[in-house]
Design brief:
Layout: E1 4-5, E2 11-12, E3 33-36, H1 42-53, E4 57-62, H2 65-77, E5 82-86, H3 92-106, E6 111-114, H4 131-149, E7 160-165, H5 182-189, H6 196-212, H7 225-246, E8 254-259, H8 277-289, E9 299-301, E10 304-306
Parallel strand pairs: 3-4, 3-6, 4-5, 6-7, 7-8, 8-9
Antiparallel strand pairs: 1-2, 9-10
Length: about 300
């Protein structure tokens, strides 16, 4: 969908050539720089590989140095332009070190893919024992990384891009697994009044209820609870940032969207799922490279827009 502010302040929409078979017009070059967080495994690794295969310069990052260095060896041996830098998205000093290194070595950045995330719910287990770590990594890590990298993103008419890896489990109005608190759901659904304060007020409330054991009656999603809440926050943050970034002058716009890879066989799902890693990464790479990047603050799966 295409979003443009009308004089009345409403949003106008028109159709874009979406779908699995939508082609990409090449706007990038070997100087185009993409950063992928959590790039050492499965989805993150495959996003790095596909972006590098398209000819971009890719910075693969991971919390664990050994795992990251091992990950880029095969890519580099295959002739792909991929380098590694350590990055822990929950550590401010690590983010700052990465930003300084990136600026010194590359200058402006073109693409950021926020993929780093954790999940401790395996199979039918719905433990919330690690809820604080899940929220800290999946939401606050995404938020910190986005805010740190925005000043580095390259001004251009084509626009820089941010892609947040999310999940349908975080949908506000899905048939299953949604927040049962209708008032909160309506507040988070209203993009005009959506605020960072609302998101940052919602998460401590959830964590407090986890801590005191009242989360089951608090109206929170009942399946993959902490992971779902973290991705709900990522989705809300994506919509909020899209509104802010849309206000930037022409030539300085940044297009931010999120997508769901689907039920992919990765460590986060205990290697159970319906989609291959290649299928799960397709829409994310497509969002990063789509030339007519006139949609923002949207949620995608299989290259199709879905509801928040």
């Amino acid at each position: 969908m295409l979003d443009n502010q009308t004089q009345s302040g409403s949003v106008a929409s028109c159709q874009l050539p979406l779908g699995k078979h939508a082609t990409l017009s090449i706007w990038w070059s070997k100087e185009t720089v993409a950063v992928v967080t959590g790039g050492n495994r499965r989805i993150g690794y495959e996003i790095c590989r596909q972006l590098a295969t398209h000819g971009l310069a890719v910075i693969l990052t991971s919390r664990d140095v050994g795992a990251g260095v091992d990950s880029i060896k095969a890519l580099q041996e295959g002739g792909l332009s991929v380098v590694y830098h350590q990055l822990d998205v929950v550590d401010y000093s690590s983010i700052n070190q990465f930003v300084e290194w990136s600026w010194e070595n590359y200058g402006d950045l073109d693409i950021l893919v926020n993929n780093a995330g954790v999940n401790f719910n395996l199979g039918s287990d719905n433990s919330v024992e690690n809820a604080r770590k899940v929220i800290e990594t999946n939401y606050y890590g995404t938020k910190r990384m986005t805010e740190a990298v925005i000043p580095l993103m390259k001004p251009s008419l084509i626009g820089a891009r941010i892609v947040n890896v999310s999940s349908r489990l975080g949908r506000l109005n899905g048939r299953r697994n949604r927040i049962n608190n209708v008032a909160l759901r309506e507040q988070l659904s209203d993009v005009e009044s959506l605020s960072e304060e609302l998101i940052d007020r919602t998460l401590p409330t959830f964590l407090q209820q986890v801590e005191d054991g009242t989360w089951t009656s608090g109206g929170w999603p009942q399946v993959y609870t902490d992971y779902s809440v973290s991705k709900l926050a990522v989705n809300a943050y994506t919509r909020l940032m899209a509104r802010k970034l849309f206000e930037r002058p022409e030539g300085q716009k940044i297009y931010i969207n999120c997508y769901c890879p689907g039920w992919v066989k990765t460590a986060l799902t205990d290697y159970v799922g319906n989609n291959t890693v290649e299928e799960g990464t397709d829409a994310g790479v497509w969002l990063a490279l789509f030339s007519d990047q006139t949609f923002l603050g949207k949620f995608f799966a299989e290259r199709q827009e879905i509801n928040f």
